Amino acid sequence: MRPAAFITGIAGVAVVVGLLLAGQARLNGSESPSSDANAGNAVAAAPDMAEPPAPLTDEDAELIARATAPAPAEGTAARSENAAGPLSEKAPADAGAVAPAEASSAAPVGKGSVELLRPAVESAGILSFGKRRLQIANVIETPADKSCGSGGKQWPCGMMAKTALRLYLRNRTIDCDLPSDAWEDMAKAACRLGQQDIGTWLVENGWVEAQPGSPLAAAGEKAKQAKQGIHGEDPRRRPASTRRPEAAAPL
C-alpha cells in the first residue's frame, strides 16, 4: 500500500505542474499581441510628435564640416612632427640667407648664366629682384616718368614703355649672363626670355634707345625711322586700323 500511495502522490504533483505550465503559456500568448501593438503604436506616433528640423545655416554647416573632418592618423602625425623638427631648426638660417622677395634660382643654365625668377619691371630697361637691380645690357633705360612728344601733344611714353615690358615678361623666369645670382645693388647683363633677347625686343619695338656702338645700334636706327614706341606719336591717338600689334611673347 505504501509504494502505491507514493507513486500516486508523484503523479499528482506532475499533473499539477503541467497544468501550471500550460496556464502560464496561455497567459503569455494572450499578452504578446497587445504589447507588440502598443509598441507599434508608439513608434508610429513618434514621427507625428517630432518637431520639424530647423534650417541649416552656413555657420552651422562650417562647424559641422570642421567637426567631421578626419583626424590625422597617429603615424602620420608622428611623421609630420619629425619632419617639422629639423625644418624648424633650419628655418632661421635659410630665412637669413635669401629673403622671399629676392628668391631666385642659382642653377646655371649655361656657362656664366643663371635663371632669375619673377622679374619686376622698374622701368623699360631696369628690372628688380627685391633690393637688387639689373640693367639690360646694350640699351639706354627709358625712365618711367619720361614724357614724349611736343606742341602740347606730350604723352607718358616712359610709363607705356614700362607697361609694355611688364606685359611682355609677365613675371616669367628669365636667363641672364651673370656669374651668379648673388650680386649687390646694380648689375648689368644681357637677358633672354626663352630664345628672345630682351634688349633686342625693347630696341626693335622702340621702347628704349640702343647704346651707341652696341650690337643693337642698327636696330635702334631702324626703330627711329619707323617711329616705333617712344620715337613716334602717342599710340593711343592712332586709329585702330594703323596700330601695330606687339610682337608675340615666346612660350
Tell me what portion of residues adopts beta-strand conformation.
5-15%
Percent helix among the residues? 40-55%
Highest-level CATH class of the domain at 101-242: Mainly Beta
Largest sheet: 5 strands, antiparallel
- Going across the major beta sheet, what is the strand order? 1-2-7-9-10
Helices and strands: which structural class?
alpha+beta
In the CATH hierarchy, the third-tier topology of the domain at 101-242 is known as: OB fold (Dihydrolipoamide Acetyltransferase, E2P)
The shape is rod-shaped
* Number of H/I helices: 6
Write a brief structural summary.
This protein has 251 residues and is α+β, with helices and mostly antiparallel strands. The chain contains six helices and eleven strands. It has a domain of 142 residues: OB fold (Dihydrolipoamide Acetyltransferase, E2P) (Beta Barrel), CATH 2.40.50.90.
Explain the overall architecture.
With 251 residues, the protein is an alpha+beta fold. The protein has a domain at 101-242: OB fold (Dihydrolipoamide Acetyltransferase, E2P) (Beta Barrel). Helix content is 44%, strand content 14%. It has six helices and eleven strands. The strands form three sheets. It has a five-stranded antiparallel β-sheet with strand order 1-2-7-9-10. A four-stranded mixed β-sheet has the order 3-4-5-8. A hairpin with a 2-residue loop joins strand 3 (120-123) and strand 4 (126-129). The chain starts with a helix and ends in a 26-residue tail after the last helix. Residues 42-109 have low confidence and may be disordered.
